[in-house]
Amino acid sequence: MSRRNRVGLLVVACACAAGLALPSSGLGAVAPTCTSSQLTMRIVSFEGASGYRFWQLAFRNFGATCSLQGFSRVLLLGQNGHRIPVGFRRETGFPQDTVILEPAKSAFVAFTYLAGDFCTTSDFDVFRVKVFLPGTAGGFLLNPMPRNNGNPIFLCARSERVYPVTSEPGP
């Protein structure tokens, strides 16, 4: 092998090694998962139509850039704070994109259910809702009663659905 070829191979090898040693903040890198301690929650909307109720929540980042992906876990709580044993189904017809949250940016979570007057199954009075974002341990407590004319949510069992986290409001 000639000296020229050896030098050429050495240059290529060094360039490859340098490329592998670059920090992971470049293209394709994903920010760490958000923690509940770096986010705040607010209600964006509460709507009702044809018996269904639709809640849209915003989670604003006040910490370092982070990411969320997938479905939140939504727990329903009775008057005494005990968990109501129903499960929110994941609405899978929507993409589960990774949402990158830079400081002061928000991600959105939506959930829906059928209101009690339309129940054909058992129903529950819900006094609080606890929302756990994907990959987080701490939850956010929602008091739905002020938005529901001061009343608890009257919810039909097995009608609950949750949508994936999005970067814009709406499912």
Gross morphology is globular
Order of helices and strands: HEEEEEEEEEEEEE
How many helical stretches? 1
**CATH fold name, please?**
Immunoglobulin-like
Radius of gyration: 23 Å
Low-confidence stretches: 3-27
> Mind telling me which CATH architecture this is?
Sandwich
C-alpha end-to-end distance? 62 Å
**Share of helix among residues?**
10-25%
Question: Can you offer a commentary on this structure?
Answer:
It contains one helix and 13 strands, in the order αβββββββββββββ. With 171 residues, the protein is mostly beta strands. The protein has a single domain, classed as Immunoglobulin-like (Sandwich). A five-stranded mixed beta sheet has the order 1-2-8-13-6, with no helix packed on it. Strands 5-4-10-11 form a four-stranded antiparallel beta sheet, with no helix packed on it. The radius of gyration is 23 Å and the shape is globular. The termini are far apart.
